[in-house]
Amino acid sequence: MDKQVNTNKKQFEFGTFMRNNAVTVMFVVLCIVCMCFSGQSIQYVLYEMFSRLSRNAFIVLALIIPIVAGMGINFAITIGAMAAQISVLWCIEWNIVGIPGFLLAMAMTVPLASIFGFLIGKLLNKMKGQEMIGGLILGYFANGLYQLLFLFIFGNLIPLKTPGLVIKGSTGVANTISLDLGGKGTLKYALDGIWNLSFLEAIYVVLAVLILLTVFQMLRKRIKLEKAFTILGCSVALICLFQVSTISNFINNLFALTKVPMVTFMVVGLLCLFNNALLGTRLGQQFRAVGQNRTVANASGINVDRVRLIAIMISTVLAGWGQLIFVQNMGSFQTYGAHEQVGLYAGAAILVGGASIRKATNGQAILGCILFHLLFLVAPPAANSIFGDAAIGEYFRVFISYGVIAMALVMHAWSGIQKKKKQKAAKA
């Protein structure tokens, strides 16, 4: 009898896990299948994955706070990306490059994205329950104003003197902005180029930092000794393991093409810590309370509209910084199109990692970013190998991008219907 109960319990837990993580499991299977048929070497895939992860992870993590606050996926982060691109334009025009240029672009993005985020939050507070569709429409509206700014105002009402920044024989900003314009340096790899290590060296650095943080927490008595010794023991064991020549040679060969931009990943790590720290504060508790039930939160004395406004402003500023990281990694950007798919791809990525429009974590954001971009990487060559046409892979991954979001919305609507049925049954 006990065995049957345990078996039923395991089956229930497995079924619940599969139901809650259906999208993630599907993407893992698709990535494995496409990887097998793509014909690409593992070294090349890992090299591309680290590059894509470093330039896309930050902007995906920028979605977490609004989701926790119950506002769903903030598709209006495209407006934060616009603020970043305006800042980059001025840094190029003023010939402020390298780290000073990148830091100036970050500083300029803050007030622009904050103002945009404030206006977005004010409007979304009038659209409670429809925030995601509102964010999409706002993105389209803002894109029209952005086009007016870059096509007519810049280069016409506001002159631009840097060669190559204006369309030849016309007015307005060129279709593609290179971060090498100006002739006195570049913003390209301003962050990525500071400190690069091989994968194995990067692992040593991460383990060393983990050991130092654990010791620091032990001295401050903020961690249980059992947990601390487990972390320290595992870290030391891994360091010793990597000293074995066979293992170290295998890792070096596997990641032969990969160079890890340490500063960029440190910035991503800092954002993860920021999200966790913020959600642990009083404001973070208010985010959660508002996300769970606005009526109860309002009755508890929480200013719901203010909390939601702060969540959108934080997300918009972080999205602007994420776009700066993306742009400096690419070395150029399409003036009139680089920002358009930011919200869609970031939203799809975080959903792929197992997040929902009501709950998200740093781990889900990172996992989703890996799986989503891995599929983008291996789908076209796999389609070319199977069907003889790489375009099928392109169509497939675009379909997946929209399909994942549609599935998340359907599952959210279905869970809402089931919840209402349970409430009615309980009352009856």
Descriptive report:
The chain is mostly helical. The protein has a single domain (47-427), classed as ABC transporter involved in vitamin B12 uptake, BtuC, CATH 1.10.3470. The chain is built from 17 helices and four strands. The chain has helices at residues 2-20, 22-38, 42-61, 64-68, 77-93, 98-124, 131-153, 199-219, 225-242, 245-254, 262-279, 282-292, 294-299, 304-330, 342-352, 362-387, 390-427; strands at 176-178, 196-198, 259-261, 332-334. The strands form two sheets. Strands 1-4 form a two-stranded antiparallel ribbon. Strands 2-3 form a two-stranded antiparallel ribbon. The longest helix has 38 residues, at 390-427. The two termini are 34 Å apart. The mean pLDDT is 86.
